[in-house]
Each structure stands twice: as C-alpha cells, then as structure tokens.
Amino acid sequence: MVNEQRRTTHRSTRKARTRVRTAAAAGLAGTLTIVGLATAQAGQEDKPRPAKSEPKGASPLLNVDYKDGSLNSGIPGLTTTHAKAKDASSVVKSGDDHAIAHKVTLGDPDYVSDGAPRSESATNDVPEGKIEVGDEHRYEFDVLLKDWKTYESGDSDSGDIIFQGKHAGGNKPSFYLMTKRNSIAFRSPLLNLQATVVDDFTSHVNQWMSFRVDVSWTKDKTGYYKISTKMPGESDFTLRKTYDDVQTFHPENPTEFGYLKWGLYRPDESIENGDVPTRVIYHDNIRIEDLS
C-alpha cells in the first residue's frame, strides 16, 4: 500500500513536470525534433536503417539526430566533447543523414577529458535532457562500433563505456552500457547490478545497433530499469533485462538532477595494459521520451 501511494505521488509530480518541459520544448521548434515526424535515414554508413515506430503512451522530450550536421545537433546547451584533439568528436555522413563520431587514443593527452581518456556529449545543460526524481523516461540511441577490433583470447578485457545515465555533481552514474570483450553489458555500479544485453556483437561491427533503457527515477526502492535491444535485421525491440523495486536515483554526493552522456569513456585502460590504442564509435538518434 505504501509503495502504491509513493508511485501515485511520483506520477502526479511527473505529469506536472512534463507539462512544463513540453512547453519549453515548443520554444525550440525545429531544434528538438518530435519523434515519428521523420524517419531516421542514417544507416550502416551507406545503407538506410529500418524506420522506427512511435512507442504507445510516450511523449517526446528530446531528439538528438544530427541532421543539421553540427556537433550539438542545433540544440542550445548540448555539451560536446571537452577533449582537445580535433577529431575527438566529429560529424560523419551516415546514409542520407549524419551521426556523431567520438574517438579516443590512449596515451595521448589531447584525448583526455576530466582526467580520463574520454570523448563524450551530454545533456547536462539542456532542460529536456535533465533527470529529476519522479521522472519516468525512455532513453533510446543507435550505436555503431567503427572498425572495432574484437576481443581475442589473451587480450585485455577492459571495457569501454558507451552510454550513461549520470548523476550530476561529479557522482558515479546510475547506470551505463559498456562493451566488455565481445559483448555489451548494462551496469548499475553502486547497486552492483550487471547484465549482458548483447551476447556477441562481432558480426555487427560497422552496423547500427539500437538500445532502449526505460527508467523510473526514485529515491526509494520503487523504481525500475528495463533494457531492450534491436539488432540489425530485427524489426522491433526485445526486452533483455528488467530490474524492479530498485532505487534508481542514488548519488553519493548531494545533487538534484542527472543527465545523459554518450560517446566513448575508457576508464582503467592504457597502452601498458595492452588495451586497443584507438577506438572510434558513432551515435545517432538519441531520444528521450516521457512515459508517465
């Protein structure tokens, strides 16, 4: 009964917040693209991807599609890489459209950002891209592992983080997705949760893969994570893992919001450790939808 009362309160709060965000989004017409009005055309470099269907009951908040060919997709406040290298972040052609490429070379200080080898984009200064307690969101994104060297026995098994739901204020993420050997895993580090959501991506290098993470953001154990994938050749998403009754908003240091990050973050990797020197990854169609 207590949990149900909490969920009712959360839904009411989310609906009020959604109305404010929707009004703000209307002021960015032409910049924040309503999902479903246009079919994504970016594909396996020169091949279009299948059209995406509008999820039932979801209200679009933000769509970062890079159609205008700019690093911030024409969205005011969208954070681009802090790495100094000119090619740490670039817009690339993808089918009839564009995508964002992030590159990190280990051992080169020009690919270091915030003290670590990384190149990422983020929504920390975009109102529609922020996370607050009470939100119930769907996050979708497409990713392509560009000329990715696959894991072989004896290689370093360090992982590369490719997407994060991050607490602000220098906190650890609530969740992230990462490559691990030849798989892709979902992790919530502070909750000690981990699940493989793509068993083997080796046949999909240089192909677009789609991911969906649904989250109910709570400060108590009434939240959830739901992780789905859509692999090349598949027409719809498949649910891979669900975590129910978890506290999804759990920063170690005080903060009132969170945000998304995508790109390439290579913690604990080095040339000395035998890790692949250079990695490149493409992202496209990063979408946030309200599910409340």
TrEMBL record:
Keywords: Lyase, Signal. One of its GO terms (molecular function) is lyase activity. Residues 1-22, 39-65, 103-127 are annotated as: Disordered. The keyword Phosphoprotein does not apply. Residues 44-55 have a biased composition (Basic and acidic residues). Pfam families: Polysacc_lyase (PF14099). Residues 8-20 have a biased composition (Basic residues). It comes from the Bacteria. This is Polysaccharide lyase.
